[in-house]
Amino acid sequence: MVTGAAQPQPESATTAATVSPAEPHRGASATRRGSRVVVVGGGPGGYEAALVARQLGSDVTLVERRGVGGAAVLTDVVPSKTLIATAEWLTLVESADELGIRIAGSATPAGAPTPDVEPAVFDVDLGAVNERVRALAEQQSNDIAGRLEREGIRIIHGTGRLSAPDTVVAEERTPGSGPGREHRLDADVVLVSTGVSPRVLPTAVPDGERILTWTQVYNLTAMPERLVVVGSGVTGAEFAGAFAALGADVVLVSSRDRVLPGNDADAAELIEDVFCRRGMTVMANSRAVSATRHGDEVVVELQDGRSVTGSHCLMAVGGVPNTAGLGLHDAGVELTPSGHVLVDRVSRTTTRGIYAAGDVTGVFPLASVAATQGRVAMWHALGDAVSPLDTSRVPATVFTSPEIATVGIGEAEAAARGARVVTVPLPRNPRAKMLDVREGFIKLIAREGDGTILGGVVVGPRASELIYPITLAVANRRTADQLANSMTIYPSLSGSIAEAARQLHEPLHS
Ligand SMILES: Cc1cc2nc3c(=O)[nH]c(=O)nc-3n(C[C@H](O)[C@H](O)[C@H](O)COP(=O)(O)OP(=O)(O)OC[C@H]3O[C@@H](n4cnc5c(N)ncnc54)[C@H](O)[C@@H]3O)c2cc1C
Ligand SMILES: NC(=O)c1ccc[n+]([C@@H]2O[C@H](COP(=O)([O-])OP(=O)(O)OC[C@H]3O[C@@H](n4cnc5c(N)ncnc54)[C@H](O)[C@@H]3O)[C@@H](O)[C@H]2O)c1
């Protein structure tokens, strides 16, 4: 019998005790030791949950059909950010000349005419880059699997489904030899964390060679001559930027009037500008209706009758939740109109004892959120202290060059709430000048009156790191004055965060 902690109440706040997850939890003796927990899907949502459940004394089985670490480690976050690391290196090299670095033998005494030497050009061996990417992902997956096994978590390499609300059937994966052995796993708590798969348009079916999903780009052994990227969301923008930096001729087909439609408008405009300056073609208001292979070419037809031809096409048109065949309907688990699993802020589904975490819930498709949802699910299910998920404080980064990092409310909401917005351009910052940083900004949003920081945007190198002090301020309801009065290093890019905060100061007499 399933013994979940409380009646599910999707969309509502939890009934459990509320403390910050950073505070010590109650002792495991207060929790349901010895519970049988089955996790289906081994991405960050699943494996982080498994670790918490084990820590709380449960008997834990994790069923994963592909590889531990999930899509996050094997096809999405880890490989894309590793590829981007190579692209970033090439972007840095663009500044070499400005910084006084010359090709060996071409430096001249001061004042002498510079000899006519071609700027350094690097060829990227995409086969070698991708080999490194795949090896790193595989290694990370093995590291996580090793950790889980050391903690005493049982891993079944196979496909899981619910045969009843308290039973998971796992069919073991036996490569090349028909159906594998079936395990019937009785569970007190089930966590569904099966992620999403790339959305496939029936008129643009990937062949894995020239029409690709984002999971297939790591099989390329040679640089695409002309890559058409369809979709200008985060995935499309990151790959378009990376491949342009790696030396491919890139066309970005965007169905909207600008790239990154869900992001800060100033940041998106800046990135689109950078893309165009680097030679990328950005086609706005261009919805792709099909992608067809003709020998070594791919023709992408657009809704307005135009077409664009490339050597390769990357479809980055979003994902669909992996719920098919899981037995969710029969188990009474409700889905949202978009097909995601309906959960509340402690990850409960509509069936007692069944929880869900990560992209399959569609709550906020980030690895960090998946992991948090998974942990929260186990804290709740197993009776430990728990805070419901708060998506208003989640930081996110688009790993373009420059990076775009955001946290808290955006400008539209700021306007609606009458909040104050200050933007400080990064190129004015002394450290930025030294580093030849030519674009970027810090934007802070603060509540009128008491100056509480409500949100922020950083566009610049390593914005993913620079956003942290702003995240701390948003998460802990700190004020602009508190941010301004925390000293920064001189010279440092974070000095501009303090500068923006100083500009938000409201004098006592005002
Ligand atoms: C290109 C790309 C780049 C990204 N970059 C970032 C980033 O930089 N930072 C970030 O925070 N997020 C990033 N994301 C989002 C991130 O990948 C997801 O939010 C994260 O993977 C979600 O984790 P998850 O645990 O929900 O699922 P996943 O990581 O998708 O794992 C789900 C697992 O479940 C398995 N599974 C599915 N069905 C079954 C079944 N029936 N039985 C057994 N196993 C099953 C799958 O094989 C998979 O391994 C990126 C996404 C993409 C597409
Ligand atoms: N750095 C990161 O953290 C990172 C990176 C990648 C993805 N993600 C996560 O994954 C989620 C999904 O991102 P995504 O970019 O894969 O999907 P998405 O759904 O956000 O974007 C897909 C884009 O494709 C467009 N599109 C759809 N059909 C089209 C067509 N026929 N022609 C042209 N354009 C079309 C859509 O309008 C949309 O803008 C994001 O919300 C993000 O949370 C995160």
From TrEMBL:
Keywords: FAD, Flavoprotein, NAD, Nucleotide-binding. Residues 36-374 form the FAD/NAD(P)-binding domain. Its cofactor is FAD. The keyword Iron does not apply. GO terms for molecular function: flavin adenine dinucleotide binding; NAD(P)H dehydrogenase (quinone) activity. Residues 9-18 have a biased composition (Polar residues). InterPro entries: FAD/NAD-bd_sf, FAD/NAD-binding_dom, FAD/NAD-linked_Rdtase_dimer_sf, Pyr_nuc-diS_OxRdtase, Pyr_nucl-diS_OxRdtase_dimer. FAD binds at K81, G160, D359. Residues 394-501 form the Pyridine nucleotide-disulphide oxidoreductase dimerisation domain. Binds 1 FAD per subunit. Residues 1-35 are annotated as: Disordered. The keyword Nucleotide-binding applies. NAD(+) binds at G231, S232, G233, V234, T235, G236, A237, E238, G318. NCBIfam families: PRK07845.1. Belongs to the class-I pyridine nucleotide-disulfide oxidoreductase family. This is Dihydrolipoamide dehydrogenase. It comes from Salana multivorans.
